[in-house]
Amino acid sequence: MYPKPLQNLIDLFAKFPGVGPRQAMRFAFFLLKQQNALVSEFQQGLAGLSQIRQCILCFRTIHSDSIVGAGQNGSEETLCMLCKDPKRDHGAVAVVEKESDMHSIEQTRIFHGLYHILDGVISPLDPESPKRLHLRELHSRVTKLLEHNGKAEVILATSSTTEGDTTALYIDRILIPLKTKFPDFAITRLARGLSLGSELEYADEITLKSALTNRK
């Protein structure tokens, strides 16, 4: 129906989460009708994505300018500013579903530990979903932390949704055996200051402060 370049753009927009065919079409025609300057900025923004890396410890997105060293195989490895900060409590790790949840917790200014971004949640209807999360890395990270310090706290800061609770229970199940060897290892969960079914990303600052302070 449409010229191939335009149809290709519509198809690309339609792949975005929450974007249907009609909205994808509106996006494509919006860009088509704009001045070349906006299209050029859009192209530059997309090109800039190639400079984005992930922190090798918490999986937070980071600009490639923050390279701190090279891996054994010569590949670039990055650490975000939080994971490099010696003033943070490296013995406390808050496990969150996505990076926006991390930023929400940071805004409370009462948590001074580190983070571990799962990059998703476990769906009870999808048995393959655990494989797509950074769970192996979490287990390895916590194990190394305990072997080094003898104690640690993992805060399960997932949302109060069915998927969030399922994810928290799954993580608790895979980490609880470490308590046998390391009795000072604590696994806590955000208090129910969060209403049932609420997304952590959209919780207000006061509610998050209460959930963090009263974690169990």
Write a structural description.
It is a single chain. This protein has 216 residues and is an alpha/beta fold. The protein has 2 domains: 4-49, Helicase, Ruva Protein, domain 3 (Orthogonal Bundle), CATH 1.10.8.420; 86-213, Dna Topoisomerase Vi A Subunit, Chain: A, domain 2 (3-Layer(aba) Sandwich), CATH 3.40.1360.10. The chain is built from 9 helices and 8 strands. The strands form 3 sheets. The protein has a 4-stranded parallel beta sheet. It has a two-stranded antiparallel ribbon with strand order 1-2. Strands 3-4 form a two-stranded antiparallel sheet. Strand 1 and strand 2 form a beta hairpin. Helix 1 (4-14) packs across helix 2. The longest helix is centred in the middle third of the chain and has 15 residues, at 135-149. The chain is elongated.
**How many distinct beta strands?**
8
How many domain units?
A: 2
Stated plainly, the CATH topology of the largest domain is called Dna Topoisomerase Vi A Subunit, Chain: A, domain 2
- Termini separation comes to 58 Å
CATH level 1 name of the largest domain: Alpha Beta
Q: Percent of residues in beta strands?
A: 15-25%
Strand order of the largest sheet: 6-5-7-8
In this structure, how is the largest beta sheet organized? Answer: 4 strands, parallel
Structural classification: alpha/beta
Key descriptive features of the protein:
216 residues, alpha/beta, Dna Topoisomerase Vi A Subunit, Chain: A, domain 2, two-stranded antiparallel sheet
Summarize this entry quickly.
The chain is an alpha/beta fold and 216 residues long. Helix content is 42%, strand content 18%.
